[in-house]
Amino acid sequence: MTTKKGHRDQALSKELYFLPLGGAGEIGMNLNLYGYEEKWLMVDFGVTFSQDLGIEVILPDPQFIVERQKDLLGILLTHGHEDHIGALPYLWKYLKVPLYATPFTAALIRRKLQDVGLEKEAKIIEIPLCGKTQIGPFKIQLITLTHSIPEPNAIVIETPVGRILHTGDWKIDPSPLVGEVSDEKALRELGDQGVLAMICDSTNVFEQGVSGSEEDVRKGLLDVMKDRAGVVVVSCFSSNVARLETILTVSRNIDRKVCLLGRSMFRFIEVAQECGYLKGFPELVSGGGYNKKSKIDKGKNGDSFFLTPKEASLLPRDQVVVLSTGSQGEARAALSKLAWNQHPDFSLEEGDTVIFSSRVIPGNEKTIGAMQNALVMRGCDVIVKHPTGENPIHVSGHPAQEELKEMYRWVRPKFAIPVHGEARHLKEHERLAEACGVQEVVIPSNGSLIRLTPDSAQIVDHVPAGRLGLDGTLFVSMGSNLLKERRKMASQGTAVVTLVLDRYNELLEDPKWSLFGVVDEEETPERSKRLDKEIERSILRTYNGLAEAMREEDQPIIEGVRTALRQATHSISGKRPLTDVHVVRVL
What we know:
This protein is α/β, with parallel strands linked by helices. The chain folds into three domains: 16-209 and 396-476, Metallo-beta-lactamase, Chain A, CATH 3.60.15.10; 214-383, Rossmann fold, CATH 3.40.50; 483-585, Ubiquitin-like (UB roll) (Roll). It is built from 17 helices and 30 strands. The strands form six sheets. Strands 9-8-7-4-3-1-24-25 form an eight-stranded mixed beta sheet. A seven-stranded mixed beta sheet has the order 10-11-12-13-14-21-23. Helix 5 (184-193) crosses helix 12 and helix 15 (525-544) runs antiparallel to helix 17 (554-573).
């Protein structure tokens, strides 16, 4: 974790600051800081996911606050999605401060910290729904909202400078089915008291109307799941407990048992049941993931509702629903294994149905498309929306335009700071907020230090705000030379040359080289031979052209041969590979 040293702290005396280090100008990877009286409060600490260059997890670089760890009072979590809590097991050890969350989110955090052996070190303080607490100079109030996970909260942060409303992720759903509806009364009362600034979700700012209700999804999934001949696979985000309840309820209504595939499915159902959700279904075995009574006898339907994959494979296919992770095409997730027939205990057949009850996260289009094509080639009916459009099979957990306008009517903030969106989302949110009568809108980027006063909101400085990638077991900067080299290797290939010199600086034997990812010797043998001849000619010409004094030093040889090799390779293949030159001297 690196940052520019000696950056001047701005949170001095009675000034109030907002500083996003992740989630501003992007969707996901949230990390927000509030500064007052030289103390800091962090709101959320999340990750995003990658399938590129061997990096699977990307995190915001917290170096700015790591350097001020003694002034960080705690981390307050709005809800339990990975882009809001996912960095904790990786980076909490650099901060070592209390964690504040409502019961469901706290239960998820405990399991995450247990996975990395930090459950005894981290102090988790549970705040009840609609609860209040004091964290240093920050007076905190939680306001219940609706989202695609239980217990999402807006956070009221009050200081003598003014009240801030940090919405987190939210929507307005009159029938969420799991959890409470958004607390309109509390939001209106907050607006009457006066709100200095609202930091607000921008994900669906381009969507007209409203995001839709989970109640409508239940109707839509019942329509598409009933009367199916084979196995019905439904893939969704495992954190969407309301969706899980919908799928379990529909499965029961159409007389099918449920097989869970994917570790996170077990985890979220277990946590939900532990916290009082999903009451109408049998409890899963803690840690094992299956119903204690789950059994069948010689392929006949037993008395269980949750089935293991092996048990499900023995039932008639029209009696099984598979609830699977992997809706985003993740290579190691359960649905990908089913699509490519790699799951050890269950397989799909012609006539089965696969339903995607989820949205496509930007950037995942290609992997999802490839997986859906594989499913179709296996003979499956792939459904991504209701055939008639009568009812949806998925609704977003983020506010569309009319919901955003409603929030602004309730809260009536003096200033608006849109976050949780790309640049185009934030700009559109600015237009919407101004149309709702907001006095001033500040569009931040990661690292924007925004000073809030009763009279103004403005960016007064920028602090370093980078990204870290989890590369195996180590963190690397996403702008590091390591990843630049890896990216170049992926697009241009690599080349290695070895020169063996005697004590007189003469070539002891012919140059040796190896090319990887540049030309295919089997597919284009003539081209490969031409390239070898051109490389040898270029290396010898370059070496022989070096002055005697230059031959006595390795670096002039390395630079000259590297340039010659790249030029030779480009002249034949059009590629400029990442090149390394080894000089071996035999004395």
